[in-house]
Amino acid sequence: MKIISSEDHRKHFPKGELFGGEFVRPFECPERWEHIVNRLKVCGFDDFAAPDPLDWAPVRKIHTGPFLEFLKNAWAMWEAEGFNGEAVPTVFAARRMQQREPNHIDGKLGYFSMALETAITAGTWEAAQASAAIAQTGQRLISAGAQTAFSLCRPPGHHAASDLYGGYCFLNNAAIAAQGYLDAGAKRVAILDPDFHHGNGTQDIFYARGDVLFVSLHGDPMDAFPHFLGFADETGSGPGEGFNVNYPLPPGTPYSVWGDALNQGLERIRNYSPDVLIISLGVDTYENDPISFFKLKSDDFTDYGARIAGVGLPTHFVMEGGYAVEEIGTNTVNVLQGYLGA
Questions:
Q1: Which is catalytic among the residues 12, 159, 197, 198?
Q2: Taking the CB of the first residue and of the last residue of the chain, which one, N or C, has fewer CB atoms within 10 A?
Q3: Is the CB of residue 113 less than 8 Å from the CB of residue 89?
Q4: CATH node for 2-58+122-340
Q5: What CA–CA distance (Å, rounded) separates 2 from 145?
Q6: What pTM did the predictor assign?
Q7: What is the spatial distance between Cα 133 and Cα 340, in angstroms, rounded to a whole number?
């Protein structure tokens, strides 16, 4: 299995995030990447590659021009105002307010952001581009005939919608990869998102499309971030009706229940008969994850990797969340080993 990664992820490292009424060290941190890489090497994964240059064509099909322009210029605009801290919004375009992009950077941040915990720093845009390129490079390998690849993306992407960032995400790496597969000739693509948090951005991007099936297992949004998307009755619209499948699960969900939902989701994917399967691989379903409430144990990740392999599709793993930093390497690699039958 080829692993695509880049040291450019280190360019994005906010000093703090708002959690529980306090500014704390971000849960999404560079050590996540380091623990995964170290565990990969210990377990004999040695086929590492740097990403190819970013191809903007599929990115522009996923994200709007004004949003990309905002991400490109946000830090420079923030600095131009003389602000000393990191760029975080202080106001949002809420219900019954005008949905117009302001001129001032403070307003732009609130217009394009879905959550307050995600700061923009001097290196965020460069790191986000590298992360998308990592996903694209894995896509090209599989489009050229590889059976599998692991895109070790950081920052993650599944909360980023066509014109929104947040949840630690800026560009939607899995969605960009999916568009790349379609542009390369695939007719149908499936995305399975087993991250604890609902992939609201991925759902939003493909909600009215029938060429991408989105299947998500996640914490019930009545109890878990992002709270306002991810309910079971969200099934797609127009040409996308029936191609969005959510399995919201309650606090304390054990692997026996989670695994049943996974089996149902995999059956939906089999019936869809896609050309390729993308896994938005978040391992924050782990029992000791600090910002999640499922109860999967490390061995469970091996088992569900094997279940994914049983679908028999070319499979592209794209890294998303997982915040039990000391265990993230073990849990991530367990999925890959389970998939490979190692």
A1: 159
A2: C
A3: yes
A4: 3.40.800.20
A5: 13
A6: 0.98
A7: 24
